[in-house]
Amino acid sequence: MPEPRHAFSLEIISPGRPSTYVNLGPHPPRLWPEDVDKLHSIWLHLCEKGPGHKLHHRDIVHIALQRLEQDLINGKQKDLLAALQQLHKTE
Fold first, then answer.
1. What is the pTM of this model?
2. Which domain, by its residues, includes 63?
3. How many C-beta atoms surround the C-beta of residue 47 within 10 A?
4. Residue 26 CA: distances (Å) to CA of 1, 2, 51
5. N or C: more exposed end of the chain, with fewer CB within 10 A?
6. Does residue 52 sit within a domain?
7. Are 1 and 9 in contact (CB under 8 A)?
8. Are 1 and 24 a contacting pair, CB within 8 Å?
9. What does the pLDDT read at residue 45?
């Protein structure tokens, strides 16, 4: 899709089959329940230690993404790829 890319969801409906959704372009990621639990647990911990009600779950995700990006920039791509491979071995 040409820029600007907008989120677009397509529902495919076929007779006798459940519908299928396909996301095209940028879209919110699907998170597993355990990922949401981990995010919430980190958020609770940091709310107790820091900015309290001003802290949002998206702030935690933002910091995590910044750190991941810094690891990529700082030559830790091999370590990140190994962690991803390990994650997919357990699925």
1. 0.67
2. 33-89
3. 14
4. 10, 12, 30
5. C
6. yes
7. no
8. yes
9. 93
